[in-house]
Each structure stands twice: as C-alpha cells, then as structure tokens.
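queue> pop job 88
queue> type: inverse folding (structure -> sequence)
queue> payload:
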C-alpha cells in the first residue's frame, strides 16, 4: 500500500497482468476478452428483447433472432475498427505516425468510444437498409445493450492501468504504475459504474416500464444523452491524455468536446421520436 502526506487512506492498485493467458506466441489480453464478453452479453440481451414483440411498435419486433445473429459480425467490426481508428485520429495520431505498428496494438492506448459509436452507427445503417429493418429501431436495439460493452471496456482500462484519474486525496485513491508516485481517482471505475451499470438500469426502465421502444429513437436518444452526461461528469476526475492535455480554460478535455455533439443529437432524437410515431 502506498501513502503520502495529507492522504487519509489509499487503496493499493491490484496490479493485474494485462495478459490473461498465452498460447505459444499468442498472448490473449484482458482487453480483448472484455470486448468479446461485452459483445456476447449484449447479443444475448438483444435476442431477449426482440423475442418480446409487445415492447415494439404495433406489437411487432423489428427483426428476427436470426437477423440479430447475422448482425453480430457487423457490429463487432464496427466497434473494433471504429473504436481503434477513432482513438488514433482523436488522441494518438502523432505516436502512430512515429510507430505505425502501434495502430494495431489495441491494448496500447485502447479504443475511442466516440470512434466506436461512429463505426457501429455505420454498421447499423448499412445492415438495416440491406435487411429492410427500421433504422431507428435498429439504433434502439443496439443502444439498449451498449452499456455491457462500456462496463467491461472500462474494467479492461482499469486492469491495463490506463486512463487513470487526476491526483486526489479521497480514501479510495490509487497509485497507478504508470501514473507517477501520486494517488489518483480510479476514474475507469467511475465510468464503468455510470456508463455501464447505471445507464443499463435507466434504459431497462425505459424499455420495460415506460415502453419507450414503441417510439423508435427514444431509447437511442436516451443512451446518447446518458453516456454524454456521464462522460462529461467523469472527465472532471479523469486525467486528460498527456499528448493533448486540457484544450481550454484549464479543464476542457477532448472527451468533453466529443460528448457535447452526442448530447445534442440525443436530445434531438428524443424530441423527434415524440412526434414521429404515436404510441399504439
């Protein structure tokens, strides 16, 4: 356990090996496992959703379970390609130019949620149009399960000892191996709770209690707003990426800037849904 003047208590960082196991020369990282688990749990949850036609407009599910199985490959590609490309473009372009191999090291710097969102959105649009699925219901389906991936992704960030928080003296502060000798907020866990657990519960209430899926776009809009607000809040505790730092005012970060358009789009989607489709 680490200690420092003025700190009441500091939890020890668990120092989990980022490599879960190796098979010969192949190293399997917890980061990759987290994405697989998140996608598979989301896929299972989505199948349960489409199996309940009473939740959807006019009592008809927007797609079959078989179509959802086909979409699994599309969404996985959208998340991984979009997330990694987004991280490179938004946060790590300079380092990748110097060392191009870094581009495929998804455990080195990780993935950008906003990039993954763009990739997933494109995958949803293409797949929905190709299979005659209402696009907004496709958005809603994926939005309901996205917190699974966010939760496990943030846990993977914690295991990797990356994307840690700002220096703090809260009793649960930790000294991360790559964060210097200072105790910091475990901001990855804050995001796992807010973007994963809390957001999943909120969307669950909307889908099963409020029957929000009957107005396509409402759940997708609520997800966008919920994520954006959670991310902006946690950014006040999270250390900005060192290659970017604060963009302005000594507190504005890239995560906040990227979340603001998402918040605006989420509000627009909710307002649009209220007048676009009447509740049966």
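queue> result:
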């Amino acid at each position: 356990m680490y200690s420092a003047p003025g700190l009441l208590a500091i939890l020890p960082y668990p120092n989990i090996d980022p490599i879960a196991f190796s098979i010969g020369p192949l190293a399997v990282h917890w980061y990759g496992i987290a994405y697989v688990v998140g996608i598979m749990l989301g896929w299972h949850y989505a199948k349960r959703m489409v199996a309940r036609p009473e939740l959807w407009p006019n009592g008809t599910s927007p797609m079959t379970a078989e179509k959802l199985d086909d979409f699994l490959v599309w969404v996985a590609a959208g998340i991984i390609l979009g997330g990694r490309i987004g991280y490179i473009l938004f946060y790590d372009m300079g380092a990748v130019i110097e060392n191009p191999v870094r581009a495929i090291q998804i455990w080195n710097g990780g993935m950008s949620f906003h990039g993954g969102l763009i990739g997933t959105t494109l995958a949803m649009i293409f797949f929905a149009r190709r299979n005659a699925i209402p696009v907004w219901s496709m958005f809603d389906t994926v939005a309901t399960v996205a917190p699974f991936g966010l939760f496990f992704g943030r846990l993977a960030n914690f295991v990797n000892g990356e994307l840690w928080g700002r220096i703090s003296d809260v009793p649960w502060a930790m000294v991360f191996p790559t964060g210097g000798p200072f105790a910091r907020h475990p901001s990855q866990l804050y995001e796992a709770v807010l973007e994963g657990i809390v957001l999943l519960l909120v969307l669950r209430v909307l889908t099963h209690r409020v029957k929000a899926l009957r107005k396509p776009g409402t759940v997708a809009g609520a997800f966008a707003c919920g994520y954006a607000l959670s991310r902006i809040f946690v950014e006040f505790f999270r250390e900005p990426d060192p290659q970017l730092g604060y963009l302005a005012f000594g507190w504005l970060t890239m995560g906040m800037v990227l979340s603001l358009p998402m918040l605006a789009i989420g509000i627009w989607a909710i307002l649009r849904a209220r007048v676009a489709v009447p509740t049966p």
